[in-house]
Amino acid sequence: MRLLVAEDETGLADALEAILTHAHYSVDVVNNGRDALEYARAGEYDGMILDIMMPGMSGLEVLRTLRAEGSGVPALFLTAKSGVDDRILGLDTGADDYIAKPFDMGELLARIRAMTRRREEFRPSDLTCGNLTLRRSDYTLDTPGAIPVRLSGREFQMMEMLMLSPGQIISPDTFLDRIWADGEAESGVVWVYVSNLRKKLRALGADVEIRSSRGLGYSIS
Questions:
Q1: pTM (predicted TM-score)
Q2: Which residues of 175-210 are buried (b: 16+ CB within 10 A; e: fewer)?
Q3: Rounded to 5, what percent of the chain is helix, strand, coil?
Q4: Which of 75, 148, 178, 207 could disulfide-link to 130, CB 3.0 to 4.6 Å?
């Protein structure tokens, strides 16, 4: 499950990333409102955690813009603005929840689980392409009559991106930006993961494949 965290306090942002990663979330962290808006527009997120007072653009402006564009990604405001009027404004802007700083990490994790659980109620748990099924509930790939194959977190994210847009070419840089957001990986790692996924599709007898478009990227069809 993938989360976007927008927090301009570096220490808190690092702590949130570490704790959420330990809780088995895939996390992208940005430190200003403009990057938050750009990432939210470009990524497939299951939830967003937004500070309100950020440089460039406030969390309120970010969420207001996204909601006006039709985004329904669940959002939680995590902010020092704790007044009743602030909470009302945040919820009226389109937030699903609102937590004031300082906060208890256990409560934050519970609120995130509740927020993303509501989203899952409205989102199909499985993705299909040809005879191939990607099950979001347990990170497995399967085909009729085959033994399901469990994917790693990054393998799952790659397959999800491909299967959400069958036939659409996704560049290595897009995979790196969304899945290896720490910037430490190089484009060669995408090829390695694609190679492993291709082996798993062959083993499952899938009637679709991950295709390469020279100089452009990868697609599934």
A1: 0.56
A2: bbebbbbeeebeeebbeebbeebbeebeebebebeb
A3: 45, 20, 35
A4: 207
